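Q: My labmate handed me this sequence with no annotations at all. I'd like to see what the chain might look like in three dimensions before we decide whether it's worth expressing. Could you predict it?
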Amino acid sequence: MTGYGQGAAETPDLKVSVELRSVNNRFVDLKLRLPDDLIPFEQELRRKVLATVKRGRVDIDVRMERAGASVLPLVLNRPVVEAALAAWKALRDEYGIQGDWDLAALMRVPGIFETPRGGVALDPAGRSAVDAALDLALVALDAERRREGGRLGDDLLARVTRMSEVVTAIRELAAAVPHALQTKIVERVQQLLTQVTLDPARIAQEAAFLADRADITEEIVRLEGHLAHAKALLSAGDGEPVGKRLEFLLQEIHRETNTIASKSAELGISRHALDLKSESEKIREQILNLE
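A: Here is what I predict for the chain of 291 residues:
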């Protein structure tokens, strides 16, 4: 699910800001941009984010601004200066390019100054400020994701309810299949053998055999159970992520729907099976984004 969260914290010597951006993704994928001082703590920060985010791609941007005695000094990068001067001399002496080389031109060369790595270690107060800023950003991100998840859950619940109504209609049509089969057998035999007396018991036996082959009671019961489970996950849930569990339920629902479509030759049931497949595909697209 998509979302944005921002948090900030500070100490007398340090200001920390954290920005989180999440977009839909089937799995969890974290992209961290950290100052050098936080590289040793990358795994800890990942675990903290993963405790909140179970699905989606999240870009994590942490910035630190030092103040007072903790400000890292700028150091002249002498190798870069010497290389820039040597390049200027080569342009002048070898290529005959004329022009003045002054301080302003030199300052435009990237990397003239650098910050020494490990110049000032991150103290416990600074580390706590990073955690506090990240916690605030996670709270804001989670709030946005929950709002989006609520809207998505309402839409999915409406679709699952619609599927339950379709299954109820299939059950009603399926109850009339045995009698319809028996009537069809009688009509066909009478057309072929108008002069022959038919044995009602034999007709009933054949109708029962065909009805047994077309029986979809078990599939309907399983469908109703899967849909009831999906409703429970979307309505109340248990505090755990439901996206992947709904994916599994949808696979089972799709399997039962296919079996119903293959077993039944009744036009109304076939049409309802197509309705179920249509709703299943719409739900499948949505739950890929649901945590």
